[in-house]
Amino acid sequence: MQALTNKAQQVDRRPMNLLERMYLPAIVKGMAITFSHIFKKKPTINYPEKTRPFSPVFRGLHILNRDEEGRENCTACGLCAVACPAEAITMEAAERKDGEENLYKEEKYAAKYEINMLRCIFCGLCEEACPKDAIYLSETFAPADYQRKQFIYKKEEMLIPHPINEPEAYAKARGNKVVTSQ
Amino acid sequence: MLLALDFALIIEKLVLIIIVVMASLGIAMYTTFAERKVAAILQDRRGPNRAGPFGLLQPLADGLKLFFKEEIIPNLSNKFLFILGPSLAMMTAMMTSAVIPWGDKVHLFGRDIALQIANIDVGILFVFGVVSMGVYGIMIGSWASNNKYSLMGGLRAASQIISYELAMGISLIALIMVTGNLGLKEMVVQQQNGWWNIAKQPFGFLIFLVCSFAECNRTPFDLPEAENELIGGYHTEYSSMKLGFYLFAEYINMFVSSVIMATLFFGGYDCPFVDESTISQGWAAILGVSVLMAKVVAFLFFFMWVRWTIPRFRYDQLMRLGWKILIPLALFNMLVTGAVILYFNK
């Protein structure tokens, strides 16, 4: 029968010679190889002291954005909730009162904004759907917890720190975010 | 009659026994830790390093985990024998450490205390006999589990141990011909004054090494514990502390085998380049114990190094190696040793 590829290798079925039958030379060679592995560099990363570097487009935890003056971007339009394939986002809208111009950018804002991290699949569709650049996915992992209730993140936990009042925290949370063109 | 008992001797031996047992248990505990660390280092990763500094409390965590598990005794098993199995394995593992000379004499409280629990004339024979009894622990445990897999595992383990004991014994005969007596303390004293026995019996050492791998059920002879072949082997039905005993007994066996090999072939507590008569007795004893421990650590590392290097033998290959290769080689070694001794005595 004609061979289909030229990668066929003839199986070595010769009987073992004396040196091979003694097993010991082969064992010693193998032990030398394993011994050399003691001195090789280990690829293990000591998490949580060190972390693996992520790319800027890594999809981690959600962050609710603010503009340069520190006002919340989110208008509770609901596009992210509609876009979410896992139905993880819920929100309640509220009207901006007269004294709150410095808190919220538009007249409608989200009074309650909750994401259920157990349902979220971190696909990033909410980030793509948002018209106000209000939600984006950062580089943090979702941390572990003991109760299911703790995984429903409220608006306050996801809001980015104020850029004017807490500039270092804001810069850290902004991270290496790649700004996609709208 | 009571006053005729030498209480000081009894107390001395009791303290020595307690120290040796505690040390064996402690060393076996940290051998499990060392096994995981050495395995990791040979496999390009780090071992357990989270439980305590550098992971040193890991054996404690393992022991506590075993304590908290449920003690299961299968309904249809023979309850007495089920519990007897691991106990026997542990007992024989510990008993062998009774005749090993851990060091030279120490002078405390006005007495010369020899660092050996029982300095009997037939030291090696005692060790051998107790190791043979270790088969019972596995056999009884596997049979009492009322489980086909355990029985098969136990049968394989028993036949393996019995087969390799023969070659071990014959290689020991050659060694005893060279040293002239069976007592372990005398052997160490002889090696202190002359060459180490490894120079006189290199081939015998090789055979003894291979056989002690088989006795401890260590790779490449770890078929009794090959989980992917026998489900669990003889410890399938065991949980919690009884399993802990089986696993511990294996590590104590390993430790005692290392000590015996170090004592028989590598000089025991003899430090090669130090003349013990020049330093004070207390320091000599400490030096001796540390040197013996260093040799034991080297042997244990060797055990683990081999484990993570070579694959295990198939059962028929194992039997063939024990009966058709090692026994003739050991006999040949014995004959050659006898001939050489005869020639030099002429």
Overview of this protein structure:
The complex is a heterodimer of chains A (182) and B (346). Chain A has 182 residues and is an alpha+beta fold. Chain A has a domain of 113 residues: Alpha-Beta Plaits. Helices cover 22% and strands 13% of the residues of chain A. Chain A has a three-stranded antiparallel sheet with strand order 2-3-5. A two-stranded antiparallel sheet of chain A has the order 1-4. With 346 residues, chain B is mostly helical. Chain B has one domain. Chain B is built from twelve helices and two strands. In chain B, helix 2 packs across helix 10. The longest helix of chain B has 36 residues. Chain B is globular and about 60 Å long.
What is the CA-based Rg of chain B, rounded? 21 Å
- The topology string of helices and strands of chain B comes to HHHEEHHHHHHHHH
- What would the average pLDDT of chain A be, to the nearest integer? 85
Number of strands of chain A: 5
- The class by helix and strand makeup of chain B works out as mainly alpha
| Count of helix runs of chain A | 6
How far do the termini of chain A sit from each other?
61 Å
Largest interface: A-B, 13 and 12 residues
> Using DSSP, what is the number of strands of chain B?
2
Kindly state the percentage of residues in helix of chain A.
10-25%
Search tags:
heterodimer, A: 182 residues, alpha+beta, Alpha-Beta Plaits, three-stranded antiparallel sheet, two-stranded antiparallel ribbon, 22% helix, B: 346 residues, mainly alpha, 12 helices, 67% helix
Task: Summarize this entry quickly.
The complex is a heterodimer of chains A (182) and B (346). Chain A has 182 residues and is of the alpha+beta class. Helix content of chain A is 22%, strand content 13%.
Topology:
The complex is a heterodimer of chains A (182) and B (346).
Chain A (H helix, E strand, L loop, with lengths): L17 H4 L2 H14 L24 E3 L14 H5 L5 E7 L12 E9 L8 H5 L5 E3 L14 E2 L1 H4 L8 H8 L8
Antiparallel strand pairs in A: 1-4, 2-3, 3-5
Chain B lengths: L6 H36 L15 H11 L10 H17 L9 E4 L2 E4 L8 H22 L3 H32 L4 H10 L3 H4 L1 H14 L11 H4 L9 H26 L15 H27 L7 H30 L2
Antiparallel strand pairs in B: 1-2
Helix pairs in contact in B: 1-2, 1-10, 1-11, 2-10, 3-4, 3-10, 4-5, 5-8, 5-12, 8-10, 8-12, 10-11
